[in-house]
Amino acid sequence: MAAPTAAKEHLYKILVIGEFGVGKTSVIRRYTEGVFSPNYKLTIGVDFALKTVNWDDSTKINLQLWDIAGHERFGQMTRVYYKYAIAAIIVFDLTRPATFESVLKWLNDVHSKVMLANQEPVPVVLLANKCDMENATVDSRVLSQFCQSNNIVNWFETSAKNNINIV
Known about the structure:
The chain is an alpha/beta fold. It has one domain (8-157): P-loop containing nucleotide triphosphate hydrolases (Rossmann fold, 3-Layer(aba) Sandwich), CATH 3.40.50.300. It has five helices and six strands. The chain has a six-stranded mixed beta sheet, sandwiched between helices. Helix 5 (140-149) links the parallel strand 5 (124-129) and strand 6 (154-158). The protein is globular, with a radius of gyration of 17 Å. The relative contact order is 0.20.
């Protein structure tokens, strides 16, 4: 009988960025712990969460989610926080159009401060959060075109509160 092969473990650093109050912490907590609270405190600087995914029988993936503060006053440290990231998730609040307007700022910030080892830009996914809210409006064509025009991998409507598209 052959000896079992050792499980391969991978660690991937993923940035979760966007304006303050868009639900970054809520999305992360729902994804990593399966819980939602309407009462999170403002993130100061950066916070971390870990999600382990058993990819197959011999591969374990550890996703290290970096919850980056969205408040301007914490923006000076982002270069340090972004280092070694392999992907980014930009979150905006569907009920606050100004948070969508700032997506390009966050995208440019990421692309100016971190690259993959092959010098390609890190892949970015866009989350249109709080889709459960009554005044949340989504124009799928606009978001799809925006992502295509700005080399964003894809976008998803999400609700941390109602666990919509938080897998």
